[in-house]
Amino acid sequence: MKALILAAGYGTRLARVAKDTPKPLLPVAGKPLIDYTVDKLKKVAGLSEIVVVSNNKFYRHFCAWAGTHPDFKIRVVNDGTNSPEERLGSVGDIYFVWGKEKALDDWLVLGGDNIYEQDLNEFMVWALAKAPAVTIGVYDIKDIAGASKFGVSALNSSGKVVSFQEKPAKPASSLITMLLYYFPRQALGYIEEYRRVSKALDAAGSYIQWLVEKKNVYGFKFGGKWYDIGSVESLEEANAYFKERRISS
Q1: I need a labelling partner for 161 at 20 to 30 A (CA). Which of 27, 50, 204, 209 fits?
Q2: Are 55 and 78 in contact (CB under 8 A)?
């Protein structure tokens, strides 16, 4: 199994504090945001490699960062884009990386700008038990109005995703989808099928919505704190929370 961290954004909404630093490398409580994800991935059994997809503008930044993790195989892939107007989007980058791979592997896909407390072990046990179905991470933000900024899921008693809406104007619940997906190798071909019928390659949520309508998808509920770092405010909130947690522990 391999992990793919999506880190090819340009962080335009954080330009005021990011300057020339890609969002996943911004510090949170003293270490790069992406390190929280990498530290969890290193504990996942059977994971052979972490692939980070970046853009051309920040490619060297991530190559330098990867050198700070000599204990694990981390490969940085350049998607070749140089500006927000050229970006491939989340689905485009997943397709780009998978298209370059020679071997057929299971893939764990994660957002480089998400940070959460719970480890990945329970998620992986659940996901492997549901294979060959796709499994996604879900989280209750306990804010129905705020859920309109995310993909909103509904699960049945067995954990199957029975409905999904990408950024609905009137969310039915506060159970949102994290940018955390497990794709067994049998499910990798679905993305080619999706690309033939859709041009929505920017938001991964659009792909998940299509999968829910066409295939079997299961959701695993995460506990603890979770942040999607999409603004200066969310960055400051995560920094304060994890700094306090580190001090108190």
Answers
A1: 50
A2: yes
Using DSSP's 3-state secondary structure scheme, residue 222 falls into coil
Spell out a b/e string for 12-35, using b for 16 or more CB atoms within 10 Å of the CB, else e: eebeeebeeebbbbbebbeebbbb
Query: Which pLDDT belongs to residue 18?
Result: 75
* CA 226 – CA 211 distance, rounded (Å): 24
Q: Does residue 150 contact residue 167 with C-beta atoms inside 8 Å?
A: yes
Q: SS3 for 221?
A: strand
Low-confidence stretches of the chain (pLDDT < 70) are 247-249
15-52: per-residue pLDDT in tens?
A: 777 778 999 999 999 999 999 999 999 999 999 999 99
Residue 230 identity (one-letter amino acid) = G
All domains of the chain in start order, with CATH: 1-115 (3.90.550.10), 118-178+185-224 (3.90.550.10)
What is the distance between the alpha carbons of residues 39 and 77, in angstroms, rounded to a whole number? 20
pLDDT tens track for 193-222:
998 888 777 778 889 999 999 999 999 999
Rg of the chain in Å (alpha carbons) = 17
